[in-house]
Amino acid sequence: MLSVIVLVVVLAITQAYDNIALNKSTYQQSPYKPGDDTYDAKRTTKVSEVYGCHKTGYYTSNCSIPCPDVNCQLCHIETGACQVCKPGQQCELECDRGFFGIGCNEKCGHCRDEYQCSNETGVCLTGCGAGYKGDLCKTRCDKGSYGVGCNETCGHCRDLNQCSNVNGTCLTGCGTGYQGDLCKPPKTTKVDLHIQFMENPESQFFNEPFKNPSSREILPAIFLSTSLISGH
After folding, report:
1. Which end of the chain, C or N, has fewer beta carbons within 10 A?
2. Mind listing the pLDDT tens digit for each residue in 188-211?
3. Are 40 and 62 in contact, with CB atoms under 8 Å apart?
4. 42-51: which pairs have CB atoms within 8 A and are 24 or more residues apart?
């Protein structure tokens, strides 16, 4: 008799059912007692509140709009993000250009190529556009730098905080002694002139003897070199 009682108690304690919201089995500690009144079900959860509409393949409050992904069986009732795919299918509908993440609710940063923003992580696969840095390209260049890769240095702006992180323009003008959009000195070209006197230059450079061997004419050789000097 005692073993029968223990068996009944074990069955009562270990009775299980599927918890749809948590997607795992749940165990109840006391036997289920069926009720006759409707208020006994006031704590239940509708499947539509967990996954979506009762009508598969649709979403919104009145379940009137098809899920964005044709391979989706149950999608989020508000966003339309696919939560359960049709049997044998894969949900492969990508986010619209410029968006990424769950439900495609995240906006891509300032990618150099907007087509190269990962629809899963938002990482800019080919780097950032001018004025931004980081994997997501949402961080502005540090103060005093600008351009692609933040590799350019701002000029003599009146307020360095007002140097455009994109093109380096001094938005509130230049400091004393400077002018122009970038407030930088103009670039100058340095020219060096070298004159060297050589005997028989044709014989030295072209390995050809003079037609008149007795000629001992000494001719100057002129060399020019140029270099670009940036303003500071």
Report:
1. N
2. 656 566 566 555 555 544 444 444
3. no
4. 45/20, 45/21, 47/20, 48/77, 49/77, 50/20, 50/21, 51/20, 51/76, 51/77, 51/83, 51/84
